[in-house]
Amino acid sequence: MKLEVVFGKVLRQIREEKGITQEKLAELAEVDRTYIYRLESGKRSPSIDVVFRLADALKISPGNFLDRVNRLR
Length: 73
Fold this sequence. Notes:
The chain is an all-alpha fold. It has a single domain, classed as Orthogonal Bundle (434 Repressor (Amino-terminal Domain)), CATH 1.10.260. Helix content is about 70%, strand content about 0%. It contains 5 helices and no strands. The chain has helices at about 5-15, 20-30, 35-40, 50-55, 60-70. Helix 2 packs across helix 3 and helix 2 (about 20-30) crosses helix 4 (about 50-55).
């Protein structure tokens, strides 16, 4: 499975675990909601800056976030 797809699955999983909508996550991470959709659908790859902003918004360490991605790929 492509890394973008795995990243998107993990992002959606964590977001849903936290009970956050795509709109709220976009607001917290200071990105557009359509960008969150594209990430979750595996159509985009995030920059390292965005990975850190998403992790902060989800209150998870970037390392933990990426570890979850690594375990699924």
